[in-house]
Amino acid sequence: MIAAVIKHFKLDDVREALVKAGITGMTIAEVKGFGRQKGNVEVYRGAHFEVKFLPKMKIEVAVPDARVEEIIKIIADSARTGEIGDGKIFIYPLEEVVRIRTGEMNEGAL
């Protein structure tokens, strides 16, 4: 399982690159968080306030082990702006997958 947290405006670039690579499914969620970026200070009606959690997009993709490195590179290349806050990619072991409709399991369910 690959989970990537990226900037909002890079979502279409990443999605298009993954689809071009043959990825047929992914999960997308709007999330908030911070890392080295630490949030920022905004002004609203003359008052300053600190935004501690920044909006990001999270993409989750389940892929066979043989494609993990390839998909990581595709996500990193298509999400990179070179600026702070580009995001992170996390890789998790995926023990089992079940396609609910057919009962297919593991790679057959991907």
What features would you describe in this structure?
With 110 residues, the protein is α+β, with helices and mostly antiparallel strands. 20% of the residues lie in helices and 32% in strands. It has 2 helices and 6 strands, in the order E-H-E-E-E-E-H-E. It has helices spanning 11-20, 68-79, and strands at 2-6, 27-33, 40-44, 47-51, 54-61, 87-91. The protein has a 4-stranded antiparallel sheet with strand order 2-5-1-6, with helices on one face. Strands 3-4 form a two-stranded antiparallel sheet. Strand 3 (40-44) and strand 4 form a beta hairpin. The longest helix is centred in the last third of the chain and has 12 residues, at 68-79. The termini are close together.
What is the element layout, followed by pairings?
Layout: E1 2-6, H1 11-20, E2 27-33, E3 40-44, E4 47-51, E5 54-61, H2 68-79, E6 87-91
Antiparallel strand pairs: 1-5, 1-6, 2-5, 3-4
Mean pLDDT: 89
Q: Specify Rg, calculated over alpha carbons.
A: 17 Å
Number of strands: 6
Q: What is the SS-derived class?
A: alpha+beta
What count of helical segments does DSSP give?
A: 2
Bulk shape: elongated
Biggest sheet, strands in spatial order? 2-5-1-6
Strand content: 25-35%
Low-pLDDT stretches are: none
Distance between the termini: 11 Å
Helical content class: 10-25%
Major pleated sheet:
4 strands, antiparallel
Spell the H/E element sequence: EHEEEEHE
